[in-house]
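Severity: low
Component: inverse-folding endpoint
Summary: output formatting inconsistent between runs
Steps to reproduce: submit the following structure tokens with default settings.
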């Protein structure tokens, strides 16, 4: 059946900002869908609020709306664009929920928009727990009895407790219509049940939870299934979780294909999976079905189904080479699977089920170091912030590569550090699911534990436990052998041991091991992912390393450039860097080079097999990158390696790669080191006559105190070399500083601590620029809305700046050029400045792509990453201006234009994911350590409208009326009076604690006093502020932290208030500047002047105005 001709335009809804549970795997799937729908001749309209993804670049859709994904804004887009159809199955739960809301409110019917990919009925059947349960139990599958866990649907705590009496403990709580396990958990007693079910009911948009019997300790599996309208069904991939049931699949190490199923069990699971997709009615597209099997008796139950492309779909796509999102988009517009060719073989159709002759392992990346008080136990509530994937010829090889891909020293197996704990202590510790559990298993084996003991403690399947023991046996063979032979090295490599691990076991340096391995000819070959276990030849060069004998890397004529990606997502290094890498790949192909991508993140666009000319799915370690470079050098000429676009991951390798003879293009490693090393960078600033805050480099605690006394408190302290503000803190006195050093860092001459003067109340400014050695191009000057001291990744910012005059921008331009020249930049440069009074201070310079590059590129309609790539290969800014990549001479990203929008970037926080061990929430206070997982963008003609959009998009919509609660630190009271008075004038009821109320009354603000949480309820039952928030009586909270305490953190008086805000989902502002912006947003919303406009329309207007200026 050919494609449909009755529809010509399709609205695609993206997944919005990156949050835990919904990361860039949906940007990957959405990008793929937009591309394929346009190729098929459809007009594609995209709505997505995330500027960091390449999906929202104007070339991927015909009309790209960076607008909040809410029914209000979506209806505005539908009204303007009048699409024929809506495809909502590729934008995660965000898109699915938005589509359901549009259907239920009658918007789709009113504008005649058809839901394609999955019908409303199919979405309801898959998402509504009760409907899904009935569908599964009514299935008739020969030879199998499809079951679900015994359960009860509840809408109140009373119903939950009644269900518990019937089902018995432990119980699983699953809210309806949520994602990433939000609000779910295992309850072992009534207290836990009340807590988990309470948050589950509030997390569910329909106030509904499923209470079901516990399947804790059962084996967990997933099937990725695809169906077309002719009822062809294929199983794309089977995935097995290494951790048993009880850990969210996003937090578990997962393996494809499933390893421990018998053929009979697999066929039964396959039959049930196919029956489920048919019964639910997903007639065009992909879905993900999860199963649990009781290891004691083989009883199989269906846990849940996602009637959409899911997180596992990206993994399954990368694992098999079967592009699920692309094919889902094609079947949604009428094609059948047998009509769609397989890109990788170019011979077989998509109706051929993929077959794997290798093993794929995905490992999760966590960020508990960012939330030290958070409970690190892994549950059904997802907590990981990213993932890495590796491919090997066997499980042990793939596992070793996956663990070293995480770039976490604690993740890889440690065979050297003495084991100090007893076997019993280690077994007790590993019984708690946690990040680093496999490391504990390895320690237990080293301490003498048996495989049976490990299985009993963890319930990890005996086959996996045996494989982990095999890795231990290989490590012992390496340790005890009389000499390192070629055979022994090959054995170690085939079981995933890195050169660093072999070096540790033999008490040698890594360089010696590498040299010996090369001398003995033990080097990897590169195999190809071909979807069919080598039955047909692969036409796409998608490679993975193994220690086999025959390589499949094809020779080439054109010079190649290697791009090192950014590895797994984490807080501080996310999809923004992948964006720059993809742009580099596209620019290189246009310029006549072969682009070669090296990366290990399965969620991203950069690891799509058709983004670059060649893809190596490999860890980003020195060992692995040197081997890829060697393989490519044998295949043809290599022009160089790009390290400046993937964040800190490739930057850390730059100098070692250059020392090994690898040519680095663009800014050189020495220049990168110069900008990072404080003393050398200080000399660059001195020569340029620029000011930096006073600082010192402390090599001991006494030294740090002496520096702090010299420059004066408050000071900002941090370890040297960080990304995302790791370990940064602002301290106000000696005891706080001593506490920080004791708590946060091991201070040594080799690892000094930086002590900077902290500029209180300064305006922080972020600048992205390009430099070619002679000319500077200022890409954009962003003004932070929060004052200095909030990490730039967490602060909202606006472009163009809203309060900086042209003379400040001119000073910034000359300062940036002086730094670029002094450091030796060839490409992108990001500088952070602080403006205090009239003095411009240089805070730091990063000669690389920054996380703001996508935001600036979209706000100014200029592809900065593309320009940086061309500069690194020898182009000049003058040439790029002439070719239209950059604006014409005399113009740049700071040129004032009437037609340009005001863009506001807002960070999205993961606080609702993390609780402390006692069940309370981690604090939401912002500081110099980055905590956000993603970002959104608001675009409009005025700042107020743009800010209001950014808040709506980041799940914190500002209210247009109601009650505001105000509690202000003394130092902020003077500045906060005006915005609070304005809210009162707008008709808000103002609640405040006693001290704040006094100040506001003096300013003629009508205010109601409310009790602090610490005072408890009043004698006549007057509520505390926390009770009022939890009872839904507060619509907006303004709370700035008070004073300082013993350990250097602002006192946690407001902590309960901010925790209650998370629980009740009330917007909570913690800075005065944030409140002022919020008031402007409220005014804009009340005026009703908020409109939607596509990037293509903004671009056309800006280009027309620029052309007029240039003439």
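Observed output (run 2 of 3):
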């Amino acid at each position: 059946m050919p494609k449909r001709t009755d529809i010509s335009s399709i609205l695609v809804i993206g997944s919005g900002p990156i949050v835990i549970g919904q990361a860039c795997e949906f940007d990957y799937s959405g990008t793929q869908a937009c591309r394929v729908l346009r190729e098929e001749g459809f007009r594609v309209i995209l709505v997505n609020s995330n500027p960091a993804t390449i999906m929202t670049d104007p070339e991927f859709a015909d009309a790209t709306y960076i607008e909040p994904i809410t029914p209000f804004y979506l209806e505005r887009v539908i009204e303007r664009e009048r699409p024929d159809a809506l495809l909502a199955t590729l934008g995660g739960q965000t898109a699915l929920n938005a589509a359901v809301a549009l259907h239920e409110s009658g918007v789709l019917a009113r504008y005649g928009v058809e839901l394609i990919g999955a019908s409303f009925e199919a979405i309801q059947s898959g998402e509504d727990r009760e409907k899904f349960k009935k569908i599964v139990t009514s299935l008739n599958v020969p030879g199998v009895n499809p079951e679900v866990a015994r359960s009860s649907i509840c809408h109140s705590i009373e119903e939950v407790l009644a269900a518990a009496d019937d089902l018995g403990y432990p119980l699983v709580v699953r809210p309806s219509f949520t994602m990433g396990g939000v609000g779910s958990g295992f309850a072992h007693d009534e207290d836990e049940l009340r807590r988990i079910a309470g948050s589950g009911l509030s997390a569910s948009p329909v106030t509904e939870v499923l209470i079901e019997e516990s399947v804790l300790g059962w084996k967990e599996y997933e099937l990725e299934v695809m169906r077309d309208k002719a009822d062809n069904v294929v199983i794309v991939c089977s995935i097995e979780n290494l951790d048993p049931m009880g850990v969210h699949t996003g937090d578990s190490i997962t393996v494809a294909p499933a390893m421990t199923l018998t053929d009979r069990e697999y066929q039964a699971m396959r039959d049930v999976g196919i029956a489920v997709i048919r019964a639910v009615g997903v007639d065009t597209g992909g879905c993900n079905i999860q199963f649990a099997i009781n290891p004691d008796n083989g009883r199989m139950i269906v846990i849940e189904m996602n009637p959409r492309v899911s997180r596992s779909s990206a993994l399954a796509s990368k694992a098999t080479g079967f592009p699920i999102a692309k094919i889902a988009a094609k079947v949604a517009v009428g094609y059948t699977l047998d009509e769609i060719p397989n890109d990788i073989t170019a011979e077989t159709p998509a109706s051929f089920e993929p077959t794997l002759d290798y093993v794929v392992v995905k490992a999760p990346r966590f960020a508990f170091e960012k939330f030290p008080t958070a409970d690190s136990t892994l549950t059904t509530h997802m907590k990981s912030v990213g993932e890495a994937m590796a491919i090997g010829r066997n499980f042990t090889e793939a596992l070793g590569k996956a663990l070293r891909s995480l770039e976490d020293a604690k993740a890889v197996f440690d065979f050297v550090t003495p084991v100090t704990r007893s076997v019993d202590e280690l077994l007790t510790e590993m019984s708690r699911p946690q990040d680093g559990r496999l490391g504990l298993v390895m320690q237990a084996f080293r301490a003498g534990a048996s495989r049976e003991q490990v299985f009993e403690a963890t319930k990890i399947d005996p086959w996996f436990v045996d494989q982990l023991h095999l890795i231990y046996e290989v490590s012992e063979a390496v340790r005890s052998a009389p000499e390192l032979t070629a055979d022994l090295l090959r054995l170690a490599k085939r079981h995933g041991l890195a050169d660093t691990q072999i070096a540790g076991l033999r008490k040698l340096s890594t360089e010696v091991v590498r040299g010996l391995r090369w001398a003995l000819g033990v080097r990897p070959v590169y195999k190809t992912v071909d979807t069919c276990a080598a039955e047909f030849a692969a036409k796409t060069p998608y490679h993975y390393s193994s220690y086999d004998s025959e390589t499949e890397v094809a020779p080439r004529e054109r010079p190649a450039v290697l791009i090192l990606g950014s590895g797994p997502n984490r807080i501080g290094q996310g999809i923004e860097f992948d964006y720059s890498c993809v742009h580099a790949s596209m620019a290189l192909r246009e310029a006549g080079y072969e682009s070669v991508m090296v990366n290990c993140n399965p969620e991203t666009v950069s690891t799509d097999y058709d983004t670059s000319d060649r893809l190596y799915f490999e860890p980003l370690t020195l060992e692995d990158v040197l081997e890829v470079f060697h393989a490519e050098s044998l295949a043809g000429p290599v022009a160089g390696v790009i390290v400046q676009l993937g964040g800190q991951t490739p930057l850390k390798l730059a100098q070692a790669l250059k020392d090994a003879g690898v040519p680095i293009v663009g800014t050189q490693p020495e220049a990168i080191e110069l900008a990072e090393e404080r003393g050398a960078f200080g000399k660059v600033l001195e020569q340029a006559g620029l000011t930096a805050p006073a600082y010192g480099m402390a090599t001991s605690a006494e030294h740090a105190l002496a520096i702090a006394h010299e420059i004066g408190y408050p000071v900002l302290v941090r370890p040297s070399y960080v990304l995302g503000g790791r370990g940064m803190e602002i301290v106000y006195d000696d005891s706080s500083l001593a506490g920080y050093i004791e708590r946060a860092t091991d201070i040594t001459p080799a690892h000094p601590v930086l002590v900077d003067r902290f500029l209180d109340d300064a305006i922080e400014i972020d600048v992205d620029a390009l430099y070619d050695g002679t000319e500077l191009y200022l890409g954009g000057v962003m003004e932070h809305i929060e004052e200095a001291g909030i990490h730039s990744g967490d602060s909202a910012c606006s472009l163009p700046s809203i309060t900086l005059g042209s003379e400040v921008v001119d000073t910034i331009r000359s300062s940036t050029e002086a730094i670029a020249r002094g450091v030796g930049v060839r490409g992108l440069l990001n500088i952070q400045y602080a403006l205090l009074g009239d003095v411009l201070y240089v805070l730091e310079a990063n000669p690389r792509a920054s996380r703001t590059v996508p935001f600036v590129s979209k706000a100014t309609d200029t592809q900065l990453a593309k320009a940086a790539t061309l500069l690194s290969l020898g182009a000049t800014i003058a040439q790029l201006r002439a070719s239209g990549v950059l604006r014409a001479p005399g113009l740049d990203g700071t040129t004032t234009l009437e037609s340009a929008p005001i863009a506001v970037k807002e960070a999205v926080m993961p606080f609702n994911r993390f609780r402390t061990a006692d069940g309370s929430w981690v604090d939401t206070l912002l500081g110099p350590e980055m905590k956000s997982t993603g970002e959104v963008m608001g675009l409009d003609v005025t700042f107020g409208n743009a800010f209001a959009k950014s808040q709506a998009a980041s799940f914190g919509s500002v209210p247009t009326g109601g009650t505001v609660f105000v509690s202000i630190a003394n130092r902020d009271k003077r500045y906060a009076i005006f915005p609070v008075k304005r809210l009162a004038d707008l008709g808000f009821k103002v609640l405040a604690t006693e001290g704040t109320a006094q100040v506001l009354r003096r300013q003629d603000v009508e205010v109601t006093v409310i009790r602090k949480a610490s005072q408890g309820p009043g004698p006549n039952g007057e509520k505390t502020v926390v009770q009022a928030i939890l009872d839904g009586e507060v619509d907006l909270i303004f709370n700035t932290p008070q004073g300082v305490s013993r350990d250097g953190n602002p006192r946690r008086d407001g902590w309960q208030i901010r925790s209650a805000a998370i629980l009740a989902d009330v917007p909570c502002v913690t800075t005065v500047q944030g409140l002022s912006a919020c008031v402007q947003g409220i005014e804009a919303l009340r005026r009703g002047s908020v409109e939607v406009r596509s990037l293509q329309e903004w671009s056309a207007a800006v280009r027309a105005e620029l052309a007029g200026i240039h003439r």
